[in-house]
Amino acid sequence: MNQIKKIGIVGLGMIANGRHIPELLNVENCIITAICDIDENKLKSVGDSLNIPNQFRFTNYNDLISCDEVDAIEICTPNHLHIPIAVTAIKVGKPINIEKPISIDLPSCKPLLRAVKEKNIPNMMCFTYRFMPAIRYAKWIIDNGLIGDILNVDVEYFKDSGFITGRRLEWRFQKEKAGTGVLGDLGVHLIDMAELLAGKITSVCGFTDIIVKERQKLDSDEWARVETDDYCSFICNIENGIRGNFVISRCAMGKPNSVKFDVYGSKGTICFNMNNPDVLDVYSKLNDDWNKKLITVDVPQNFHTTQEAEFIKMLCGEPCDLLPTIEDGIRSQKILDAILKSSKNNSWVKIK
């Protein structure tokens, strides 16, 4: 890779500063040339830290997208803005990297589907866990038959962020801006991992709940109703007779960020905790060295990469392994919608 790619970032919140920017700064053949946010304070803070000239600090995403100093767009905004920003970028022929979930619901994705059909523009979804070494090694183990046929997966994602003292009614708690709560924010990672490792989800039966019912508004002392889920659990059928069990909560006291994913096969088991993504707990009957019990193994170095490194490789036309695309994002949105429908109707919902 020898061509420097100029990256523009729309949305300068937690995910941009916590993942996108640090990872991009560690990729040699790219540079962040422009930023955009409606918050002038964020523009100044991030712009100053990155030495972005004032003329490339925008409050309107259209201006960043049309900027000649931007080759590709990172979309790190609230969910309801993903589609309009992505469509605008695709129409002018600029590649995009979109944060998850892709939107607030499946019908809102129609303009993006039309845009993608009209122009074949490189694109990527930010299903971050696909780039974690434990996931990539787990897929290699499964694809090479080392745990046999998958029988079931057991997954949990617990956080205590719903109980942060003084946390107000930010966009994540508003249905028109977020679509879903913890289901789309955290659960979508689990859904994508399950389909990557085990196969397509064919039907779901879910339950969602709002634990913290009210929060103070951002701009006043007035309290308002929380509209998106804090807790979700669902069971599902996966192709080839595989079963799945998922539990997601942001109201789990004592667990700042705990992601456990267990895959049980006919000849072995894989267990990993994403708090330690460089190792796997593995048992396989195919290898006597594993002594017929779970042992911890280090993930080989060739399975290590980052989300942003793969995005830049894609922009440079290099082969990218396990790259998630808009198609994967829309697929996951379909499943999110089905889980919400199942919770509302108290019934199984098929994924068409």
Would you mind describing this structure in some detail?
Helix content is 31%, strand content 26%. It is an alpha/beta fold. The protein folds into two domains: 5-128, NAD(P)-binding Rossmann-like Domain (Rossmann fold), CATH 3.40.50; 131-304 and 316-350, 2-Layer Sandwich (Dihydrodipicolinate Reductase, domain 2). Strands 16-15-14-13-7-12-11-8-17 form a nine-stranded mixed beta sheet. β5, α5 (110-118) and β6 (123-125) form a beta-alpha-beta unit. The radius of gyration is 21 Å and the shape is globular.
CATH homologous group name of the largest domain:
Dihydrodipicolinate Reductase, domain 2
Supply the number of structural domains: 2
The chain-level structural class is alpha/beta
CATH topology of the largest domain: Dihydrodipicolinate Reductase, domain 2
- The proportion of residues in beta strands is 25-35%
| Shape field | globular
Q: How widely separated are the two ends? A: 40 Å
Largest sheet: 9 strands, mixed
- Secondary structure tally: strands: 17
Helicity level, as a percent range? 25-40%
Could you spell the SSE succession in H and E letters?
EHEHEHEHEHEHEHHEEEEEEEEEHHE
Level-2 CATH architecture of the largest domain? 2-Layer Sandwich
Taking pLDDT < 50 over at least 5 consecutive residues as the criterion, the unreliable ranges are: none
As an assembly, this protein is single chain
Give the neighbour order of strands across the main sheet.
16-15-14-13-7-12-11-8-17
Summarize model confidence as the mean pLDDT. 95
Whole-number radius of gyration? 21 Å
CATH class of the largest domain: Alpha Beta
Helical stretch count? 10
